[in-house]
Amino acid sequence: MKKILALLLVSVFAFFAITLVQSDQLVPKFGDADLSSRVSDKYISKSVSVDNKVVEYGETVNAETGSANLVTSIVVNYRSFDTLGEVTVLFISALGISLIVGTTDGMIKRSESGFILKTGSKVLMPILLIVGIYVITHGHLTPGGGFQGGSMIASAVLLLLISDHEFVPNMNKFKVLEGLSGSLYIIIGLVSISLTGYFLKNFMPTGQVGELMSAGIIPIIYLFIGLKVGSELTGILSDFLKKEANV
Amino acid sequence: MNATVVLELFISIVLIFIGVLIVFSKNIIKSIIFLSILSMITAVSFVMLKAPDVAITEIVIGSGLITFLFLFTLKTSKKAGDSE
User: Fold this and answer.
1) What ipTM describes this predicted complex?
2) What's the pLDDT band for A11 if we cut at 50, 70, 90?
3) Substitution target from B47, B60, B84 for chain A, most A beta carbons within 10 A
4) How far apart are CA A20 and CA B49, in angstroms?
């Protein structure tokens, strides 16, 4: 009876969702949307404050935001204040976890891990670390960025934590790194206020679209976000491991 | 129908099937592993929708860290009626 009711409910929801998507009023057909009346056109041509112009990869110099990756140019340049909020949300959740499950008696006691985990993590850990650093430093050119790269670095440390039971990281250094990079993000915003008058506005030359050294403050901010997210997630994971060892 | 549409339909049907498996499997650890597989296949569908940024996030967070957190929470929590 319960399952039949659930199935009925799901099919009613699916019917409404499909009819709403199919109808032309709510969502226009693929390719039919009038982009000139929307803000996304401005983001694509990187010209929110000036007239529209064509942006070409590897040729355009001194665009409004020099990032080749469109998502990054929105997340860290046009909507950087939102990203500051996201980082704050992650910080508050890490704070809550360390308040609830964190302990001060330091050592993480772990049981001996298996042969496959030990050997596999030796191969996988350096690759994960390098890919994480690559994703962070190329955040303005290729998909990904600070959040994704930071999570990759945290999973590399997690592999070390569960495979090598003699590896005990110094969590205080991670916390110092986290606080330092979080404050530097805000300090960049304050410097931007004093130079341009707007919080987190790009105040450095943007350079040529597609170069590694381009896009002004975007790579710097993404570096700080990557360090912050990586050390924060490592702190959360080690808190969980300590809790598991103490039970 | 061209090949991409067929592949997208196939991925969607597999996603629904794995979602049903997550809800109705008796073993919680099996549910968590199915959740991890669901994240992997969702990442494939994100790549097909031309959203590689979201796909990377889905693989790293959904399939890596969330699985770890769920498994350790399950290991740490006690059954009702266990003594202290």
Assistant:
1) 0.79
2) very high
3) B60
4) 20
pLDDT of the residue at A61: 75
Nearest residue, CB atoms, A151 vs list B61, B69, B73? B61
Our CA-based measurement puts residue B83 at a distance from the nearest CA of chain A, in whole angstroms, of 12
Same domain? A19 vs A128: no
Which residues on chain B are in Cβ contact (under 8 Å) with A158?
64-65, 68
SS (H, E, C) A55-94: CCCCCCECCCCCCCCHHHHHHHHHCHHHHHHHHHHHHHHH
Structural domain of A233: 70-246
For chains A and B, CB pairs below 8 A equal: 44
Alpha helix stretches (DSSP H) within chain A = 2-22, 40-44, 70-72, 80-100, 115-137, 146-163, 171-196, 218-246
**What's the CA gap between A79 and A76, in Å, rounded?**
6
Which residues neighbour A164 within 8 Å (Cβ) at sequence distance 6 or greater? Answer: A113, A118, A121
Query: Are A92 and A198 in a shared domain?
Result: yes
Q: Which amino acid is at B28?
A: I
Tokens for A82, please give them. 């939102």
Interface-testing mutation among A83, A110, A240, with chain B (most B C-beta atoms within 10 A): A240
Same domain membership, residue A116 and residue A204: yes
The confidence score (pLDDT) of residue B8 equals: 87
Q: Are A143 and B76 inside 8 Å of each other by CB? A: no
**What is the pLDDT averaged over residues B11-23?**
90
- The size of chain A, in residues, is 247
- B63: nearest CA partner in chain A: A155
User: Which among B52, B69, B72 is the nearest to A143, CB-wise?
Assistant: B52
**Does one domain contain both A236 and A168?**
yes
